[in-house]
Design goal:
By secondary structure, this protein is of the alpha+beta class. It is about 50% helix and about 15% strand. It has a 3-stranded antiparallel β-sheet with strand order 1-2-3, covered by helices on one side. About 10% of the residues are buried. Bound molecules: zinc ion.
Length: about 120
């Protein structure tokens, strides 16, 4: 939490030069209009920065479960599972999601766990 707070305070300082430069460039303009434009530009940039700062990473795997799929490993047909998100492992927008059967999903989970383990804290 404190790390995120410090990042947020630094991010506020980063908006200072943007506001200053825009206000200097628009010095002949009405100060209210210039400030609105400066804040608009800041908002367009810092929306993405803030989104990154405040993203939350899930500690436990998030699963997507779908019926009538073919297991990507053994080819069995039926209910399938896949991990969509787990810490910085993110397959939420996977264009070709791979589902696995009850047995194969556990093997895949261990594989993903090993992959992300060294990145955990
Ligand atoms: Zn399988």
């Amino acid at each position: 939490m404190i790390k995120r707070y410090v990042m947020y305070l630094i991010r506020w300082q980063l908006s200072t030069p943007i506001l200053a430069v825009v206000l200097i460039l628009l010095t002949d303009m009405n100060k209210w209009v210039a400030t609105i434009i400066a804040n608009l530009i800041g908002g367009l940039i810092f929306f993405w920065v803030d989104k990154f700062i405040f993203r939350t990473l899930s500690d436990s795997p998030m699963w997507e479960i779908r019926d009538n799929v073919t297991c990507a490993d053994c080819g069995n047909h039926g209910r399938g599972y896949r991990i969509t998100e787990w810490l910085d492992y993110n397959r939420k927008n996977d264009k070709n999601p791979q589902f696995r059967c009850e047995t194969c999903k556990d093997i895949k989970m261990l594989e993903v766990d090993k992959k992300i383990k060294h990145r955990k804290k």
